[in-house]
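URGENT: need a sanity check before tomorrow's submission.

F., can you look over the Transcriptional regulator record below? I want to be sure the sequence and structure line up before it goes out.
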Amino acid sequence: MDFRELQYVVTVADCRNITQASKELFISQPSLSHALAQIEKEVGAKLFDRSHQPLTLTDAGRIYVKTARLILREKTDMKNRIADLKIGSSGDIIVGIPSGRAGYMFRPVLGRLREKYPASQLFFKEGGTSDLLELLQMGKVSFIIVPYFDDELPVGIHKEHIYDEEIPLIAAPDFFSDADFWDKGARRINFNKIAKKPFIAVKKRHFIRTIVDRVFQKEGIIPNILTEVDSSYDAVQLAACGMGYTIVPQRTVIILGDKQNGTSFSYSDHPPVFPIQALYKKGTYLNKAEKYLIELLKKEFDGKGK
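Structure tokens as predicted:
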């Protein structure tokens, strides 16, 4: 049994389909099927129940995959530790980050990262927060950069806080032209008075929706949802057209810049924030380049989210 065989079984378990796994492993489907048969023969037990589609793990398979993930993680840690012993060198960076955030956060720090660790390559996977947490648990990324509350961290996950990002309310400049929408004596929107105005929501699979739902619950109102969209960028641009109002991370507004043509409105003396965290499994060895990237992000974005 070798590392290659361990990776074969783990990949099939993740894909739950031999054909898809063979594509990820860059080998033919017959070769992978033959390798699995040989592994099961050596182990002396079936690892997959092939009577079900998608494939499911047997009890023996669950034990094998759990152990294989630990071994492969230790292999990666070993390579990182050895690479870090070389002066001016380090291992590669494997990080998960939500779609749309990579360009915003990596662009201003990549030059300094490459200058210090020119041999290290940056690999990143994009997805929703829940998808990225799953990749982290499976050992497919070393760490992830996501919005996450401290009190909701899964067991066994360590966090490093990068920065807090504000969450403004966006609408067309004249959307709240009626004085009745404003709190008297304060230049902020009164949530109770705009409850019936059309709201453009981001779909629930995104973390921003969790925070926005909490805002409305705290105010004790049910928003008049006009539509649900796949991204904060879509929400901002629709709001800027006057279709409704939305609440999104400040990052979205910064990236769109003049293109959004909307206006940020104050709606609370203490608006909620997006706590952007670097999360990794406790006990994981982050190489020098990975640690340096996290420190660069902290220095670059601390204080910029407001």
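My own read: The mean pLDDT is 87. The radius of gyration is 24 Å. If you see anything odd, call me.
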